[in-house]
Amino acid sequence: MLGVVSVLELSAVAANNTILEHSTKPLLLPLLMVFVLVEVGWNAHPSIKFLVIGQFFSLLGDVALMFDGELWFGLGIFMFLITHVFYLIGFFKLGARAALNDRRWVLFVYPAFWIIANAALWSGLGPLRIPIILYSAFLVAMAMCSMSLGTLFGIGGTLFMISDLLIGETVAYGKFTGSGVLIMSTYIVGQALIAYCWTRRVKESGEPAAIPQPATA
Fold first, then answer.
1. CA-to-CA distance for 138 and 166, rounded, in angstroms?
2. CB of 157 within 8 A of CB of 145?
3. What's the rounded Cα separation, in Å, for the pair 95 and 99?
4. DSSP 94-115
5. Residues with Cβ < 8 Å from 24, sequence gap 6 or more?
6. Which of 1, 9, 61, 159 is the most exposed, having the fewest neighbouring CB atoms within 10 Å of its CB?
């Protein structure tokens, strides 16, 4: 189902069909949330609630960015900022702290990318420079921690990061041919890979959900 909706969404973006685009875009994250809950359930691991809540705020961000205007754009970015915070907390519950020690190269590559990306966007962002710097710090941290948890996991986080940075590029310098399709395709694949790798890691961990103990007299 997610595949069908994704194809419809990307087709709508490519054809500039606003009605179809706005009909399919709000379905993407709910379908991923259903996938997570069916695959592992809410209580399968302490990190799952942070994934699902993060996906919910991504849904709110998707809806906000469907509207024009600085207020809606700011609201959308704020919703995605909350997403990255929840994902980061979830990553650490999955073991990102130890994983970062095993993949120390990410501690240099991703911050360097953050500096280069912001330098490239700086001249075109105007008053949005500081908000984008702060937002992109959380965005890049999310991608960095996802890569620490595994290559496929990291590809998902990195695609999510690229999607958001492409939005920043269009804000700074204007849209380019195929920018809408590229933004949405990297976003959809990135979010899907994060959800898939997250649930797979939880399954492989074999950590049982906490079982409430009966009260004693």
1. 16
2. yes
3. 6
4. TTHHHHHHHTTTHHHHHHHHHH
5. 5, 8, 9, 12
6. 1
